[in-house]
Design a protein that fits this description.
Helices cover 59% and strands 6% of the residues. The protein is mainly α. It starts with 18 loop residues before the first strand and ends in a 12-residue tail after the last helix.
């Protein structure tokens, strides 16, 4: 249940499962499906419910967008209330210092990347969306480097296991006998067992940590490039329509000036212009005003479309970032779990060694050796004369 939009207090908005309601910077209610990222606006005269299928997208009405200019010369919006940056119109900070956030309780991407930032490497600017995209690509690079780090860890384990197995076959001190000899043989066997443990550890690291890190969002860069091109195209369209507005505004000014000049000349009879000429100039001025209205309307539609796509796309980038961090966290937890298991198995390989070492008995060893190697138990005696 969400509060009704302004002016519609009599209606109660009940959202279907998976939908969330936000307010646009212009105070219009904006719906986003957190599952499909479909979005739409609650427009006056339309049902209070947002679209319920992934294929439906309710566009914001033209009058709700951030107006570059008025749709009528008689209702011309004061430029003092707006500021245009790189062809995007924002409320002037002095007239609207704080817009209501779409997600007030979160540091969400969808609220903080509308304006451009000066490029520290040059005199140009970097779009807010481009900053988000760079973060995502950096995250993918970090993920790749983590995978390479685990690969190096695997190589160390494999080399260690190989050297342990080789050492277990070493013949040094293999002729030791008795209970100590058994313990020494178990020491060497424990190396072979430990080598097997580390080989299994390296194999699990590859299948359960390295490979998932490397394969996760394998096509991410390609998908992001499509998204980047889409947003960039919308910005180009916005710039083109902004230029059309400025051109139409200039043409209207010239037509109005021409009409005013001809009217004054007729009044003071400095010209032989007829009333028909005045009507013609007035028609051209009216036509120029209509052209400006049309250009402003097209600009507002383009900006509205860009606004909607920015919200949807930034929410998607935010979701992907949360997914990436959580995925890495889970696999690093898996790494520590495998490491704990390896320590436990390594401990089990030396337990038989401990048991045999506790049974080493020098007296028993001496007895066994004497029994096997004795040459006689009669000592020599002194010779009698």
């Amino acid at each position: 249940m969400v509060p009704p939009p302004p002016g519609e207090e009599s209606q109660t908005v009940i959202l279907p499962p998976g939908w969330q309601s936000y307010l646009s910077p212009q105070g219009r209610r904006y719906y986003v499906n957190t599952t499909t990222n479909v979005n739409g606006y609650h427009a006056s005269g339309t049902p209070a419910h947002p679209p319920e299928t992934a294929h439906m997208s309710v566009r914001k009405s033209t009058g709700d967008s951030q107006n570059l200019g008025s749709s009528s010369p008689s209702k011309k919006q004061s430029k003092e209330n707006t500021i245009t940056i790189n062809c995007v119109t924002f409320p002037h900070p002095d007239t609207m210092p704080e817009q209501q956030l779409l997600k007030p309780t979160e540091w969400s991407y969808c609220d903080y990347f509308w304006a451009d930032r000066k490029d520290p490497q040059g005199n140009g600017t970097v779009a807010g969306f481009e900053l988000l995209l760079q973060k995502q690509l950096k995250g993918k690079q970090m993920q790749k480097e983590m995978s390479e780090f685990i690969r190096e860890r695997i190589k160390i384990e494999e080399d260690y296991a190989k050297n342990l197995a080789k050492l277990s076959q070493n013949s040094l001190a293999s002729q030791e006998e008795g209970s100590l000899g058994e313990a020494w043989a178990q020491v060497k066997k424990s190396l072979a067992d430990e080598a097997e443990v580390h080989l299994k550890f390296s194999a699990k690291l590859h299948s359960e940590v390295e490979k998932p890190l490397m394969n996760f969002r394998e096509n991410f860069k390609k998908d992001m490039k499509k998204c980047d091109h889409h947003i960039a195209d919308l910005r180009k369209q916005l710039a083109s329509r902004y230029a059309s507005v400025e051109k139409a505004r200039k043409a209207l000014t010239e037509r109005q000036r021409d009409l005013e000049m001809k009217t004054q000349q007729l009044e003071i009879k400095l010209s032989n212009k007829t009333e028909e000429d005045i009507k013609k100039a007035r028609r051209k001025s009216t036509q120029a005003g209509d052209d400006l209205m049309r250009c402003v309307d097209l600009y507002n539609q383009a900006q509205s479309k860009w606004f909607e796509e920015m919200v949807t796309t930034t929410l998607e980038l935010e979701r992907l970032e949360v997914e990436r961090v959580e995925m890495i966290r889970q696999h690093l937890c898996q790494y520590t779990q495998l490491r704990h298991e390896t320590d436990m198995f390594n401990q089990s390989t030396v337990e038989p060694v401990d048991q045999l070492l506790r049974k080493v008995d020098p007296a028993k060893d001496r007895e066994l050796w004497v029994r096997e190697h004795k040459t006689g138990n009669i000592r020599p005696v002194d010779m009698e004369i």
